[in-house]
Amino acid sequence: MRILLVNDSYFVKSLRDLGCELFYASPDTLADFQYELNTITIEQILSHCPFKPDILLFSDSLNLRSVPLGLERVQIPKVFFGIDSPMNKFWQFDFALGFDLAFLDQKAVVDEICKLHPQESERIHWMPLAADHNLYYPQKEDTLYDIAFVGSLNPAVRPKRSWLLQELQRHFSVEIFDGEGHRSLPPNAVRSIYNQSKIVLNENMFPGLNLRTLEIMACGTCLLTEESDGSWREFFKDGKHLVSFRPENLIRNVETLLNDDSKRKQIADEGAKIIKEKHTIDKRAEQFMQIVQECLPDINNTVDTHRSYHFGKSFLQLANRWPDQPVGKLKDEGVRLLLDATSSKNDSADLHFELAAQAMEDDKPQDALESLKKALDCDPSCLRAHWGMFWCQKMLADYESAADALQSLCHHLRISDYDPDYLGQLAKTEEFLASDYLYLADLMEEAGWLLENGINRSGSHPCRWNAFDALQMAIVVSPKTWTALTHCADLLQRCNSPDFAIIVLGKAVELQPWNPELRLKFAKMLLSSYCRKEGMEMLVQFLTKSNDPAKWEAIEEIPISDDEKQLLLDDVHNQSRNFDFSPEAIAKNSTTRRRVLFNQS
């Protein structure tokens, strides 16, 4: 098969080893055709290709992202391979739908896009990354480390990683290699570290099967990995190829592995064996080609205006997310593609909203108004169009129409208890209070606009916001509004970001240290993470400061071990004994008196 590969070299060697005739075009210096990191058309790339390709493969990359223009015009079967999809789905969803076939590296994201677009499910496939067996393999090394971790440390960006390592360091010898200020160490250095370790730790930024998992196993080292979403179970068996952990069994699992050399070695060997047999880049390339060849006869590669919409929308997402990078130049092309799509039979409310949103980003409210009117003509119940109309009319100082748009949104959300006078006030207000942002966040939650991974919308035009962005603004306006903090923490917890939920709720606890219910909620969050020590301390504070007669019953449902329960009882008893029982202290107020008597009981 003849393949034109654009952007990243991930599959170059493996596809050529399979006998494919491959032409690699990229800003990469090793490319067959190297182009500058500026806008280039796919026709220009094709003019340098020495053959007519059977497929065009666009392979995404973390370090290199250059999207050629004109993909929607090319009548060659187009295939997309996307990586880090949980953090990039805000643009990869639409980008993938512009191709004839798409492969994404995480199962949960593939399941999500297929649920949203069931008619496209046959052309969206899960294709995990794989280990490069030329870089990661077993080699004879002296064993230097009990537990090793290779990866960057930044508590502000990756708090869970820091908490996990701190918890391990309380009990074991852990060697951390953080890249010495760089993003990562060279592969040969990483390979040596893996081979010098009894156990290598893997921590996930997002649920799924990451590349580190496969590279550790490829080196014949025992992998200790977060259970995460369990998608790795489709390929590996816990206790045979690797060992998984959760916060509650982390220490126990590590102790078992360190105390049983034979078992640990057996797991490491089985892991290396299955990686070599099924999960190298060569094996992944074989799987890729098999799917492509099966699907190729059914691919309709004619020009489709749906492609213009999907590419246009994804281009705008890329340009707005990384305006200073080469993809930032895709904005004008994104608008052009969306305008092209409006002239087709595929006109839709979503399409016109995207044009309106970009017009508001570019401070063109009159253009936005025209697009929003068309969106509502296409679908009078389009929630985003009503939301956009509110902000657009505010920009145009038509406050009555802005209030009407917000009322229409409430109507379509079936919210009947809104206050028209308050909505009118929101329409006129130039600077919102924290309570205003909280109200808008509630509306967006009702609409289902919660949070988008990989992008912070609070810096973009409010018409693109989600509830999380409004809550962030509430906290910025009034950092001591604890209700905004608790609301934000709840939202983060719902959206599978428990580590950041802990940070936000911790700030709320600092603002209301006397609130025992808040302490209990915080304790539960901490105990479900790798901050169990801090969680136990918070439980003690809850038990010693709460007046609730049912407080002991409230902690029964919390999953703590018998040993932890005994420590909890001991700590509560000791704190009660250390309390000042002098008449002067007890007589300070009736609340203190009741608490003292209750603690004594």
From TrEMBL:
Placement of TPR repeats on the sequence: 349-382
UniProt KW keywords: TPR repeat
Database matches in Gene3D superfamilies: Glycogen Phosphorylase B, Tetratricopeptide repeat domain
Occurrences of domain Spore protein YkvP/CgeB glycosyl transferase-like (ranges): 163-290
Stored SUPFAM superfamilies: TPR-like, UDP-Glycosyltransferase/glycogen phosphorylase
Entry keyword annotation includes Calcium: no
InterPro entries for this protein: TPR-like_helical_dom_sf, TPR_rpt, YkvP/CgeB_Glyco_trans-like
Designated name of the protein: Spore protein YkvP/CgeB glycosyl transferase-like domain-containing protein
Source species: candidate division LCP-89 bacterium B3_LCP
